[in-house]
Amino acid sequence: MTIAARQLTKEDLIAFEERVKEAFLDQRIHAPVHLSGGNEDQLIEIFQQIRPQDWVLSTWRNHYHALLKGVPPERLFQAILDGRSMYYQDKEHKFLTSAIVGGILPIACGVALGAKRLGLDERVWVFCGDI
User: Fold this and answer.
1) Is 87 exposed, middle or buried (0-12, 13-18, 19+ CB in 10 A)?
2) CA distances (Å), origin 95, targets 25, 52, 70
3) Residue 83 gets which letter from DSSP?
4) pLDDT tens, position by position, 48-83
5) CB atoms within 10 A of CB 41
6) What would the pLDDT profile of 1-25 be if each residue is shown by its tens digit?
């Protein structure tokens, strides 16, 4: 399990999204953002199984996934302010997203195939849809 998944609470996730919402309403974000809400408990439970060496791939609605994977909140928030909410990437934390509907699925297959061919102990977790 990632350290973030062990440490972050439902309240932490909600507070982060509230901060993003306020920044958007204050017109500090000049790009689309898709906020999450209502699925915190399920994601925290899922991320108990995700290891630091695993890859997480997500959609345009990815803030909770990034935080639970271990992306530092300030790094993610700055990327959101810079207009990269819907397509945030973080190689250090093995986290990729795509704003293209369904676009992350073939990318996940390629990452998984690459890890398998290299004999790496890495799993690929892909989120598509609302969770």
Assistant:
1) middle
2) 27, 10, 9
3) T
4) 999 999 999 999 999 999 999 999 999 999 999 999
5) 10
6) 776 667 999 999 999 999 999 999 9
Burial class of residue 56, CB neighbours in 10 A (0-12, 13-18, 19+) = buried
pLDDT value of position 106: 95
Is 123 in contact with 55 (CB distance < 8 Å)?
yes
Alpha helices for the chain (secondary structure H): 3-7, 10-25, 40-47, 63-69, 73-81, 104-117
Residue 97 to residue 108: CA distance in whole angstroms: 10
Give me 87's structure tokens: 């397509």
Residue 4's pLDDT is what?
67
Strands 55-58 and 124-126 come out as parallel
Give CA 4 to chain center in angstroms.
Answer: 12
Question: Tell me, what's the pLDDT at 6?
Answer: 77
